Amino acid sequence: MTPVPLPKAxxxxxxxxxxxxxxxxxxxxxxxxxxxxxxxQALMDAEEKAEIILQERLATHDYINQTLxxxxxxxTEGVQALGYFEPVWxxxxxxxxxxxxxxxxxxxxxxxxxxxxxxxxxxxNEADAYESEFLRELNLNSELTVRSEIRKMKGVPYxxxxxxxxxxxxxxxxxxxIPANAPGGLVSLYGPERSFGRRVGExxxxxxxxxxxxxxxxxxxxxxxxxxxxxxxxxxxxxLIWYALNKRFLMDPLxxxxxxxxxxxxxxxxxxxxxxxxAGRELQELTEAFNRMSYxxxxxxxxxxxxxxxxxxxxxxxxxxxxxxxxxxxxxxxxLPICASCKKVRDDKGYWNQIEAYIRExxxxxxxxxxxxxxxxxxxxxxxxxxxxxxxxxxxxxxTGKDR
Length: 404
Prior knowledge:
- By secondary structure, the chain is of the alpha+beta class.
- Among the domains are: 11-167 and 203-227, Beta-Lactamase; 333-404, no CATH class.
- Helix content is 56%, strand content 8%.
- It has helices spanning 11-75, 77-81, 87-90, 92-106, 129-140, 173-176, 184-190, 214-266, 281-328, 355-362, 373-379, and strands at 112-116, 146-153, 156-164, 206-212, 345-346, 352-353.
- A hairpin with a 5-residue loop joins strand 5 and strand 6.
- It is rod-shaped.
């Protein structure tokens, strides 16, 4: 079975499809680039927020340890000797944890802040597996101070950053060496197992901060969607404008040339009809060339009849000349009866004629008479005649005639 050929796409459709593909590709790349830029900006904002949170918490630590605790210790020196311990003012980590809890209750943000440790004194500060691995690497690599990356937790993207925290100092071992050396109130509050057995120089904590990126990413996606809708609208509008301009300045002029060519191919009445020149140099040149061709073809067609008449007249004259020549030209053909004695020939009417007269009548040959040497001897005995050389023989009187 012969496959049916598919209709070929028009130039207009191909141009439109090509421009549409270019515009859609460019728009898609633009929207993608903008989405990536917004996500990058969101990440930069998250890094800045994490840095602000970190600096604010470190400043709080510094105030508690360097200002608040010394002042309170001076007022409660006797009480401390009795094993007194109050985390509200004696533990900056406790204070930071409570401040963060209050901040989280006051704001809807989902920031995560934890001063994590392995075997932390408070279970709320216990490091998870990811944080524990970072603490282990901190103690193995003294040059490592920070690690930042984007992690997804429960399907939510976070900017996660972890910084090196406190290192154990000699003055801290009272509360972190063995339970017997620690204040009784501390052991009573947290128990004798947690955060003991530390050594000097050990990195015991890390600051873990997580800033959610889902809101910023959602805004980037929403902006990309809005841009996509705007782009689709612009593409539609540009496509309509392009179609109208293309139809007016390109396809309509080409259609006129095509229609004129079709009309000329079916009827000579449209030959020489000039098409109005369209806008645009290229189409004007094409239309002018077509108009000149149409005019030349019409001129040729108009002169064709006169030329044919001339050629016909010439042919008729030639035929007449041929007929006249044929009339003048007579040929001898067929079986010619001739007398065995006198050599007369019989014509078609049954008359006997001298052979000379018959040939003269039926051809353009002419005769001049002479006599050969043999006949001279027979007819004129004793007459001496030399044998003639090249050239005509002596002529004698023509006594031929027709014998009926």
